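Sharing in case it's useful to others searching the archive later.

Someone asked me privately for the predicted structure of TetR/AcrR family transcriptional regulator, so I'm posting the question and my answer publicly. Question first, with the sequence:
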Amino acid sequence: MGLHERRQREKENIRTSILDAAFSLAKTEGWASLSMRKIADAIEYSAPVVYDHFENKEAILYEISLNGFHCLHIELLKAQREHDNPEDQLKAIVDAYWKFAFKNKEYYQLMFGLGMQCSGKGMMKEEFSSFQDMLYDCTYEIIKKKGSNPENACHSSHALFSAVHGLISIMMMRNDDIPSTMNKTTLDETVAAFIKSL
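And my answer, the predicted structure tokens:
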């Protein structure tokens, strides 16, 4: 391995260490308390080394949120591929989204700015809208199957996304006084009613 390749690998290793340290700190202390200094201390480098790899904390948060959206996208695709008809696909996709949110709270909070500023404002990637796109596709297919007006698919799927994201947000921000079973039941009933209404 040449000197250039060795330096490149070392640079990538430090970059990965920075992202891992930031995510680990967020899990223990929360996103709000994250700082470049704390990340530098965690990887046992000076702060300028962290700044060599990332312009600021926002750039680190954006990179981590991209990874979160990528992981979510993979879970949604798995759920979608398990079913053939759009009704079952819709239920599976919503369920996968719900499970991801609570299995990966730190990711979800960062991805959607829950209790903090949303990361990467104005810098959209394909995976950012994969859940909404899948909801739309299923909704459109169900509407078409029922012989309803396909022009309603966009509005309807957006309403469902808002309901699902709203339930998750309420539960994450007020999880002490709202039973998880109540919210999951509400979610299932909402999806069933949604499909019936199309």
